[in-house]
Amino acid sequence: MPAPEWFDLTETDRAIAIETTTLAATIPKNNPKHWMTGIEKGSFLDKATGCREAGDGLMVVDWLMEAGSDAGYGDEVFSPDGHGVGRYVWYENETDPTQREYALMAHGSSHRKRVVEGPQLCHRMKPVQPEIIRGSNFVAVRTTYQYKYAAPGRRAGSRWTQLVVFPRGERYFLLMDRIDSVNDAPEMVLRNDTPGCVRHQRGDTFSEIYLSYLGGPDGGCIPASEFFAPFPPDLKYGYRRDLNPLPQRFIRAYHLRHPQTGAGGPWLAGLTLEPSVVYEAWCSQRPGDIIVLIEEIHGRPVKAGESFSAAHIVGFFDTLADIHRVYDQHRGHTALSADPAGWRLLRQQH
Question: Which domains does the chain have, with CATH numbers?
Answer without folding.
Answer: 57-67+118-346 (2.70.98)
